[in-house]
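Run folding on both entries below.
>entry_1
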Amino acid sequence: MKLLKFSSLTAALIVGLSLATNTNYLQAQSILEKVRDRAKQTATQKVLSEADKAVNKGIDKAIAAPKKKSNGSQDAPVDPGAEESTPTAAQQASIKAFSKYDFIPGDSVIYATNFVGEALGELPAGWNSNRSSVTVSLDGMPDQWLRMAQGGVALTDNEENFGEDFTAEFDLLMHFDLQGYLPPSFRFGLLDSGEESTTSNGLLNDPKGAKSFFVEISPVADAANLLMEGYDKHSRYFNSGSQRNSLAGEWYGRPVHVAIQVQKERVRVWMDGEKLYDVPKAIPRQGNLNQLFFKLSTSSYTEEQVGVYLGNLKVAKGVPDTRHQLVETGRFSTTGILFDTGSAIIKPESSGVLKSLASVLSAHEDMTVRIVGHTDSVGGDAANQLLSEQRAAAVKEALESQYQINGSRLETEGKGASEPLADNNIAVGRAQNRRVEFIKL
């Protein structure tokens, strides 16, 4: 699939979406008409930065009907000669723009979903919600998304404990048709369901459980007020105080990546590559978090004026020690180097992993490594083999061009889907199998 050019003008078109119900479809059409009128007035607005243009290729139009997709993989077959298979200077710049990003995901995926295969217009199977949050497809964008309903709380279908040390990630897309009054605030967080099930109706009424924390985004024009709170059952354990963040003005109308790292009591949160919070004692130490929750408040805006979408959720255990694994054991495997769907374009949120690897290679100048790309099994063997080779080559190019690692120290190889680590029939397994390995030679 050839990605389309994304700008601040076309970003607004994301709100025209494909929904499975006629009501939501009519709302999408109404919003599209407003966007077209608005587009005429904003033709001279500044374009996004080079980094943003590299991350977000965008959308040119809203789709008129739901599009059926048949698999849950990011590794769909791709035209070997497709333009997106070769990183451009702008795409390399996008990685460099995340130079301060130090997030490294856990090394063992325990929960993942991109909503592909879920019925459009319905809540994903196994999830729980108190409002009509539904799965949708957005034209020109991969996978499927969960559209939050105002006044709604959504709980994932996860049933596993996350442990003391883990990471959580998801993509967030927010659009608000601002009319001079406050839009709804949005919360995302994690909780320990305690004696209740992870999808208990009681958690919909008050998503705190045995312990919890959340980040709240309260949008205002060209900015947002941010708040982080932690709870010991229903008693507030930590409060950051509300803080105005001017960078939030760049979050609206395009996908941004949210990353969370929990290490016992410590919680760190990144959004769009910026570290928002690093709190040593954000939550009580006892117990285990086991659920992600999302909450969109109510407002005077209609549903068609508000679009908050979630995509590409992933939770992974552990805190990888890149240096130990590569130097002492001779092998490091990561699912944290992410690519655009069906291509070898490295996403900028991969910068933390790349920087960590580059640091190890720089400290051990005599070390040479083989970079091995792996895919899941969806798609043809030949296409997956080629894609894995292209991704390994892209990682080598990034280490050379962005981190000045001598290319003579780096070999590349692709294994396609030939060496799976987990079950390719489930989303968690496919996410674990889409990985890049580094082997000391």
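>entry_2
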Amino acid sequence: MARLSVRSFRALADADLELPGAGVVLVGPNGHGKTSLLEALLYLEVFRSFRGARDRELVRFGEDGFRVEATTEASDADGGGVAGRQVAQWLPAERLQTVVTAGYDARTGEKRVTVNGLKAARLADAIGAVRGVVLSPSDVELATGGARVRRGLLDVLLSLTVRGYVEELGHYRRALRHRCRATPADVADWEALLARAGAAVAAARRAWVERVAPRYAALCAEIGETLEAGLCYASRASGSEDELAAALARSRDRDLARGTTSVGPHRDDLRLLLGGRDLGVYGSAGQWRTAALALRLIEAETLAERDGPPVICLDDAFAELDADRSARLGRLVERLASRGSQVFATVPREGEMPAAVETLPRWRIRDGAVEAA
């Protein structure tokens, strides 16, 4: 990413920033905007906050909206990857950069996204111009939180890397909303769409999990885990479209009475195992952090193999790690950087600079204002 422009975003001062090619370390006290800058940086990936904040919560107090703009090299402009194909439709063949903007109007609730000045009719058409992964202590929720958290990781990643996934996910969610309040006369039609789109969503998730499970185990070991780590896709209605349709039919009367849908990919889970047991139940705090880090690193590798190296954001990522795990993570980050990833790291003080990022340029941030050190 070459440039970032922010206007009225959280408590950040309006800024037009030239981003160093290798990345940068943001140094500043807690609460002064370090994470908000990373949030602005990656808002343009799928046009929502990686912290889960609603758009109106991102607007600086007293303002009517916000605007974020990034200039970045086009992702695989010859169309070799999913994000590259999406962005390439906006680019002449000779263009080597793309400019993506997102603006939000708090008065109307409208979000406007453009790529090279052209308005995106659908957000799905513009995702992937910016691609990145955030590593932070809060990622422990991937191990300890509910299935929704892990499904969210899968859905964002596969939307960026699997052709057609975001469309099938949209069809599934639409059918799910309608089936939950359908009448006996039309419920079968919504179930047919739910089964077709749901089978496609579940198949893509399962294929990814099965492919990366060995790598997940290897990364956990590389970070310092001594027990065997496992990754599997857990579904109550796994299999084909017909199997999901049959499960929906069996649960129809009960579901309609409750106004819910009890089977389908929206109920599935990405299970994390350690020594064959549920990590969330039996793991320690260090093991939870190891698992979360491994998942984020696999996310980065998946993005890289599709469309080239993503941005890596380390939001106090080395905090709460013991010295051995911190050193191991540092080596993995250095490996990603050597393969072309920009690295953006946050630290509260110069003396807490992880070795993996100490050679990067330093920026200081205070009261939302950024300046070169």
